[in-house]
Each structure stands twice: as C-alpha cells, then as structure tokens.
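HUMAN: Mind making up another protein with tokenized structure?

ASSISTANT:
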Amino acid sequence: MNVARLNMTHGNHDWHNMVVARIRQLNKEKGYCIAIMADTEGSEIHTGELKEAIKVEVGTQVYFTIRSPAPPEINGVPVVGVNYDSLGEDLEVGDNIIVDGGMCELVVTAKAGPDVLAQSIEQGLLLSKANLTFRRNNELIRGRAALLPVISSKDWRDIDWAISAQVCTVCPGANFFVSCPAPAASSQLPASPQAPCMKHAL
C-alpha cells in the first residue's frame, strides 16, 4: 500500500484527522512512507442519509425527493432524499435512475412537486450518499446538472482542511480522476515532512 485515500464524501473532518494521525503514527513507528490523498466529493448528485439501506426487488417503488428533511415514507412507499433541487425538472416519466453505477436501476413512473416516484427494474440496494445518474433512451441526462461546478463549496471547505492537515495530495471529485482544471488553492499546499516521497498537487 502506497497511498491512503480519504473519501471526503463520508465522515467529517474530526474523523479524517484521526485517520491521518494513525497513518502518520504508523509511518513513524514502522518506517513506512504511506502518502495520504484527500478525494473530494465533487458536484455529484447523491442520496441523503438513510437510517438503513433500502433493499429493492423488481417492482419495488421508491420516492426520490428534494424535501429536507425527507419523510421516511409516503403512503407506505420509502422515501430517499436527493441533494439536487432540479430533480423534478430534469426527469420525465420513463427516464432511468442509475444508483451507484449499477447497484440498482429504477424507472420514473410519476412526478408530483418535489417528489419523483420510481419503480425498480432489478434487485439491489439503495444506500446513503449513493451517486445518482439519469438516463433517457440510453443517453445521459445532463439538464441543469451540467451547470454544477466541478468543485463545490463543500469541496473548497475540504480542500481548506486538507491544506491545514498537510495531506500529500488532493484529488478533485467528479467520479475520481476525471480531468479538470486545477484550482488556485493547489499552490497553497505545503510540503509535507510526514510524506516526503510524494509531492503535493491537485
């Protein structure tokens, strides 16, 4: 293992500080040179926090909503919050919702205000913070999502944390290693005595 990747989509800065401290302690005690990479979330469309995973079968109905907080259910149908205000504008009946690149797939069957009702066409799991992509006639629906910045306001807060924590490198989100312009903050990343084998960069 050469690099420890911190997934900034999950956890908080206190938790990541604990992980960084443990890695550096191991480097010091064992003579390792494990670098630390902060992988920011990017402006992806995600589900909200769920109390537990939702297991779906073929035909299972699920509501996706932009309401915050999302109700646990609507008329007995489980509800999943989504962090994308244009959900109902971009989706049409018949569109496909792909969860985590194929963890499960649902088809939109109805829309009502902030809520989108979809039906699963395969078995799978809906998890917290799952990535969502939308397709129509097998083509990716970009809609207003195309206007989302590559680096979100949360990403900038995480980058500020990464600078203060002196991690070795920061990878902007956008589905991991997607090419994008390096932000100005990259010039602020300091040299790290804890991991001299790896240069700070974005």
Q: What stands out?
A: Helices lie at 13-30, 87-90, 153-165, 173-177. The radius of gyration is 19 Å. The chain has four helices and 13 strands.
